[in-house]
Amino acid sequence: MNKLNESVQVLKGIGSSKAKMLLRLDIISIEDLFYHFPKGYKDKGIITKIKDIMPGSYYNVIGTVESKAMESRSKRGLLITKFIIVDETGSFVIVFYNNRFIKNTFKIGDRVIFSGRTSLINNKTSMECPEYEKLTENNMNLISIVPEYALTEGLSQKEMRKFTYRALEFADNSIEEIFPPEFRKKFKLAEINFALKNIHFPDTKKSLQRAQRRLKFQEVFFFQSYLLKVRGRSAAEGKGIVFSGEKHARDFIAKLPYSLTGAQERVLEEVFMDMKKPDAMNRLIQGDVGSGKTIIAFLALLNCVKSGCQGVMMAPTEILAMQHFETIKEYICLGKYDIKVDLITGSMKSLYRKEALESIKEGMTSIIIGTHAVISEGVEFQNLGLVITDEQHRFGVRQRALLQSKGINPDMLVMSATPIPRTLSLVLYGDLDISVIDELPPNRKKIETYFIGSDKRNRLYNFVKKLIEEGRQAYFVCPLVEESEKLELNSAKEYCENIKKNYFKEYNTGLVYGKMKNEEKDKIMTGFKNGEIQIIVSTTVIEVGINVPNATVMLIENAERFGLAQLHQLRGRVGRGEHQSYCILISDSNSEEAKSRLKFMTKTNDGFQIAKKDLETRGSGEILGTKQHGLAEFRLVDLSKDFDIIKTSKEANDFLYKNNEIKKTEYQKMVKYLNDKFEKIIEEIALN
Ligand code: ADP
Ligand code: MG
Fold first, then answer.
1. Helix, strand, coil in percent for the chain, rounding step 5
2. 3-class DSSP state of 373
3. Quick one: average pLDDT of 326-346?
4. For residue 240, how many other CB atoms are within 10 A of its CB?
5. Closest CA to 634 of 212, 233, 232, 204
6. Closest ligand 1 atom to the C-alpha of 293?
7. Taking phi first (over 0 means left), then psi (-120 to 50 degrees means alpha), and beta for anything else, what does residue 37 get?
8. Among the listed ranges 430-439, 548-557, 612-621, which one has the minimum average pLDDT value?
9. What is the pLDDT of residue 234?
10. Can you tell me the distance from the alpha carbon of 323 to that of 330, in angstroms, rounded to the nearest whole number?
11. What pLDDT does 619 receive?
């Protein structure tokens, strides 16, 4: 019934072998073919009527071949082929030189588009050696803008065009429009059949733009709708928890060895305001590395616990989770509170885990810190009121949603050091409120960043040695170089042994890597924290969150392997104390692009600038991590450019939800479509 779901094989010209080729492009159904958008267009420019043609200029003309091609020889023996073409306004001559094939290429009656320069030959307007393309399928090439597709072996550009054209004929303008007319009018959205036709075979540039706008809107809008759905937003309003532990949290601030920065104070007020309200909080705290987000998280947790609820904080790595666990325990000690905190990680011993789970379920444990393990089955809460995710960009939408689903509409706080441009966060979070900690604690020195080649290694190590002699500590990061984990580990081990043997004999080094046992990691990190270990050599695991103020050197090998945002994160591990800190990027890459990225790092410490640059150079999919979560694939939208579309989509969502507009009959088609799509995605995720 629904033509969109039919196999591409219903189309003329697509048998099992072409279908297999199309499958390589993930094209199975008619709909897939429609949504395999052109990657670009060949612009043939404006089509000119023959009567308007003047000699000496460049034109595109569509005409019918009227005469047989006549061959003649010039005095010098040049082969000249000429024939006449006509349209409803006139006729002119096409001329080719030294091309024996032309004669048999064109028959009388062929419709052809010619593009070329005109001149006067023997007093007749002629076009010499034009580019040409025959119009075979009905009207498909009667246009000036021709689509160009991503192809696969065995499929030609012409075939792809033909198939898409036939698919459009097959669908015959009967694709169901899920947006009602008033909605489309309000947000200036073209009709779906128009959009799909014109994204492939635009009549005019304007039509193409309208088609793009509609389809881009659809991408962002669907994605935002999934987010809203995941979060169960409509159910959430007015049914959150009213927290009452604010006073305790405020009392605690006085016990801190420092006072909060103005930015921290402001953000804290915003958080507490949300927590007081009966609506569930949905807030992103964005603050550059070292801006002091953890204390805000703790104060929110304290407010929550003193209101009789449990709070959970999820971190992307075990080391970070452990560090938060330690920090929070210190705060609790400082405040002399009787609050039980438990750590849940994937690699913890099952006996301890069992105990902790029991305690959480019974409500004895009030604060839970953990990795992804806290969203696993088997973790049950008694009364979960607040959910915090740290360095949230590492988590998928689904993971956040799962965590939230462990409580009954808990408040939600996400913390990120990766500054996300406002437009992007709209896409990522829909209606998340944003607080920005735009100030670093006082007396922080600017981190000096250098980009060097490995030929300077000796001098560099001497420099680091001097700093260590002054009592400082250093991180050495060696990114994954080998394909296999084992080899990678070996190379990190080798590196470690090498620097120890040849440069840093008198000092202690510790090696930290991804799959290391928890206790071992813990031992090394503790050793580093209390100064027994001077150098930590790590693969990439220290990327986020670690806080050792005495560490002042961040040395990154093969720095070109990291994205800018990652480098910024790594750099943020130093510069946390009173001493001058250094970040040294080592790379021998010959790529100009890599060199320019690394140079950029030496010029700015501004996380926002860096995120922007990263977005421009790497594209959004990678940064958002949406692709691997199956939630959205932005084919048309460029998140670093299409701000207008993103804004429109947000407005549309606001419009639909704020007035309960979405409940109206005319939107039910859309709701059903989104539900079906959503179910399919959830199923896909479950299968993965
Ligand atoms: P991030 O925002 O990167 O998570 P942290 O919360 O780890 O930063 O804080 C970095 C360091 O700054 C910690 O040692 C913390 O104790 C300290 N800190 C936080 N707020 C202040 C402040 N207002 N004044 C001085 N130091 C602070
Ligand atoms: Mg942090």
1. 45, 20, 35
2. helix
3. 94
4. 21
5. 212
6. 2
7. beta
8. 612-621
9. 41
10. 11
11. 53
- In this prediction, residue 521 carries a pLDDT of 79
- Assess contact for 550 and 531: CB atoms under 8 A: yes
Pocket test for ligand 1, best of 291, 443, 554, 569 (most atoms within 8 A of CB): 291
Residues 459, 465: Cα–Cα separation, whole Å: 10
Domain co-membership, 515 together with 650: no
- Per DSSP bridges, beta strands 535-538 and 473-477 are parallel
The distance in angstroms from the start CA to the end CA of the chain is 30
Instruction: Decide if 162 is inside a domain.
Output: no
Q: Is the model's pLDDT at 304 over the cut of 80?
A: yes
* Closest atom of ligand 1 relative to the 437 alpha carbon: 2
Both 399 and 459 in a single domain? no
Task: Give buried/exposed letters for 61-94 (b at 16+ CB in 10 A, else e).
Answer: bbbbbeeebeeeeeeeeeebbbbbbebeeebbbb
- Is any ligand 1 atom within 6 A of the Cβ of residue 260? yes
Which of 256, 286, 289, 294 to mutate for ligand 1's pocket (most ligand atoms within 8 Å of CB)? Answer: 294
CB distance 446 to 304 below 8 Å: no
Is 291 a pocket residue for ligand 1 (Cβ < 6 Å)?
yes
- Total domains in the chain come to 4
Per-residue confidence band for 529, with pLDDT thresholds at 50, 70 and 90:
confident
Separation of alpha carbons 95 and 129, rounded Å: 6
Residue 256 Cβ contacting ligand 1 at under 6 Å: no
pLDDT of residue 59: 86
Question: What single DSSP character describes residue 600?
Answer: H
Are 254 and 225 members of one domain?
Answer: no
According to the model, what pLDDT value does residue 581 have? 95
Q: Average pLDDT, stretch 448-469?
A: 94
Record the tokens describing residue 615, joined without a space.
């977005």
Higher-pLDDT residue of 490 and 100 is 100
Please indicate, yes or no, whether residues 418 and 489 belong to a single structural domain of this protein. Answer: no
Report yes or no on 443 lying in a domain: no
Q: Give me the domain span that covers residue 90.
A: 45-142
The residue ranges of DSSP E strands in 478-620, in sequence order, are: 509-512, 535-538, 551-556, 582-586
| Gap from CA of 536 to ligand 1 centroid (Å) | 21
Q: Tally the residues of the chain.
A: 688
238 with 202: CB under 8 angstroms? Answer: no
Which residue, 325, 338, 331, 439, is CA-closest to 390? 325
Domain assignment present for residue 240? The answer is no
Residue 136 placed within a domain: yes
Choosing from 142, 163, 185, the residue where a domain stops is 142
Q: In what order do the strands lie in the sheet with 384-390?
A: 341-344, 367-370, 310-314, 384-390, 411-416, 282-287, 433-437
pLDDT tens for 271-298 read: 999 999 988 888 989 888 788 999 999 9
pLDDT-based confidence at residue 622 (cuts at 50, 70, 90): very low
**Which CATH number is 50's domain given?**
2.40.50.140
Q: Are strands 310-314 and 384-390 parallel, antiparallel or unpaired?
A: parallel
pTM summary value: 0.62
C-beta of residue 13 within 8 angstroms of C-beta of residue 163: yes
Q: Which helix (H) or strand (E) holds 474?
A: strand 473-477
Cα 662 from Cα 80, distance rounded (Å): 68
C-alpha span between 312 and 599 (Å, rounded): 40
Query: Does the beta carbon of 283 sit less than 6 angstroms from any atom of ligand 1?
Result: no
> Which residues are CB-neighbours of 602 under 8 A, at least 6 positions away?
449, 450, 451, 585
* Residues 263 and 406 both lie in one domain: yes
Which residue puts its alpha carbon closest to atom 20 of ligand 1?
292
| Section 401-418 average pLDDT | 76
Show which of 122, 142, 162 is a domain's final residue.
142
- The answer on 468 and 529 residing in a single domain is yes
Q: Are residue 411 and residue 302 in the same domain, yes or no? A: yes
**Which of 311-315, 408-412, 485-489, 607-611 reaches the highest mean pLDDT?**
311-315
- Based on the fold, state whether residues 598 and 635 are members of the same structural domain: no
Residue 429 sits in a domain whose CATH number is 3.40.50.300
